[in-house]
Amino acid sequence: MPYLWLLLFVVMFALVLLAVSLGLRLLEAERKKRVAGMLQTVAGRIYAEEARILVREATGLSKLESALARWPVTANLDKFIRQAGLDWNPVQVVIVSALLAAVGALAGTQLRILMLPWLSSLGLALVLGGLPLFVISRRRARRLALFERQFPEALDFIARSLRAGHSLSASLDMLSAELPPPLGPEFRLVYEENNLGAPLEVALRRLVDRVPLMDVRFFVSAVLLQRQTGGNLAEILRNLARVIRERFQLKGHVRAMSAHGRVTAAILTVLPIVTMLGLMLLAPDYLRGMARDEHGRYLIAAAIIGQVTGYFLMRRIINIKI
User: Fold this and answer.
1) What is the DSSP letter of 48?
2) Mind listing the pLDDT tens digit for each residue in 107-159?
3) Distant-in-sequence contacts of 279-285, Cβ < 8 A, 24+ apart
4) Among 68, 73, 241, 251, which is disulfide-ready with 152 (CB 3.0 to 4.6 Å)?
5) Are 175 and 161 in contact (CB under 8 A)?
6) 121 and 14 in one domain?
7) Alpha carbon separation from 302 to 64, 118, 197, 299, 306 (Å, rounded)
């Protein structure tokens, strides 16, 4: 046991040193990344993978990080991080996740939270390794939800500005100065990209990539279609804002009606886990005998698989999209 704590201390100390070095490297590379992104926008190149890799190699990435940067998974993670509004490097996120998974696997061999050593190692490795992705996912969900709530007000603002005689570019400039994050900074990027010389179509499509919401797609389609065919853009945006607000009301009614299902799903998910932990504390031999038996191990594995499957099925049932 003392050797395990010594090993955990060494691993955690190495993680702290790695985090400090990566933070210094990110601060050094931030300015170059922003300049390269603006130049790509002016050239009309939307998230060119080759350009991103060249920029990161020029900032002093190691050979391992350069190899990981070429993985399709890393490219998708990079887009996922941008949608969360974070400045994290996807390659470094992958490395930190791998280190945390290794720490979890080592700790699982000694702690045996799930009775079996290999099962405990696998469980802790998945939990610790997926912790950065969980943080990014939660940050992304909160940011998109806040953007969606602010969006109808932004559409009304643009519609009023257009009716007052301002151009669309000037309306985006005023909108970005008036509204708080995350909507204000996103439209500030659209305005600056268009002001630097990028076509409006390119800037709006980059907005759709950064904010993958159906309402934003409708807005971009309406603007681009109006520029090609003509029409009253202010009236279109006002009607779109009204439809979005009505959809929010309908979503609130559906969420209230499905509250019973969400509570039931939470209880059915937590109850077996609490029961297992209680038995491990009050009667450890009750489950230990099942873990030693060959058929009992299969029953434990089947129970865990059934629990996970039931959780995702219940989530799909109560997750009504509107």
Assistant:
1) -
2) 888 776 666 677 778 888 888 999 999 999 999 999 999 999 999 999 999 99
3) 280/115
4) 241
5) yes
6) yes
7) 38, 15, 59, 5, 6
Residue-wise pLDDT tens digits, 192-206: 999 888 898 999 999
Do residues 158 and 171 lie in contact, with contact meaning Cβ atoms separated by under 8 Å?
A: yes
Lowest mean pLDDT among 70-74, 126-130, 310-314: 70-74
* Separation between Cα atoms, residue 105 and residue 125, nearest integer Å: 5
State how far the Cα of 46 lies from the Cα of 168, in Å rounded to an integer.
Answer: 22
DSSP conformation letters of 264-313: HHHHHHHHHHHHHHHHHHH-HHHHHHHHHSHHHHHHHHHHHHHHHHHHHH
Residue 70, CB-side half-sphere exposure with 13 Å CA sphere: 8
Domain termination site, one of 72, 103, 129 = 129
Domain with 190, as residue range(s), is 143-249
- Judge whether 136 lies within some domain: no
What digits encode the pLDDT tens for the residues 254-303? 888 888 888 888 898 889 888 888 887 888 787 777 777 878 878 888 88
Residue at 230: amino acid letter: G
pTM: 0.69
